[in-house]
Amino acid sequence: MLADTLGRPLRFRITAGQAHDITAAADLLKGQKAKAVLADKAYDSNDLRELIAGMKAEAVIPSKRNRKVFIPHDKAAYKHRNQIERCFGRMKHFRRFATRYDRRASHFTGFVHLAAAMIWLR
User: What is the rounded (10 degree) CA torsion for 83, 17, 63, 5?
Assistant: First the structure.
């Protein structure tokens, strides 16, 4: 999920349960403009960092422990990453989102759109 500075959902992709979240990151960032992109250690990859640099944005992503060359990040800016966590928290107030009872991705996608619209109205 891609969220703005205020923690409101902008875009999302439904992925398979066994797929890593970074596989959807490039699609979520396409066509977006930002000064910085904040993400956790799971998104630490050279390809994603190059994509963010191509957007003329700063990648605020801590380096993984196993990275050979540590890449520093802006710790003050990284503290604002909690906005995406808050966005997920608000979405999880909807039980249907938190448990994903829907078998079909199209049904779940429709509900995610509805829940995101309700969050935007708050």
Answer: -20
Burial state string for 74-98 with b = 16 or more CB within 10 A and e = fewer than 16: eeeebeebeebeebeebbeeeeebe
User: How many whole angstroms separate alpha carbon 99 and alpha carbon 18?
Assistant: 16
Domains, the chain: 2-121 (3.30.420)
The pLDDT of residue 8: 87
Phi, psi of 14 (to 5 degrees): -90, 125
pLDDT < 50: residue spans in the chain: none
Looking at the DSSP bridge assignments, the partners of residue 59 are 37
Q: Could you tell me which of 30, 42, 86 has the C-alpha nearest to residue 66?
A: 42
Which H or E run contains 112?
A: helix 105-121
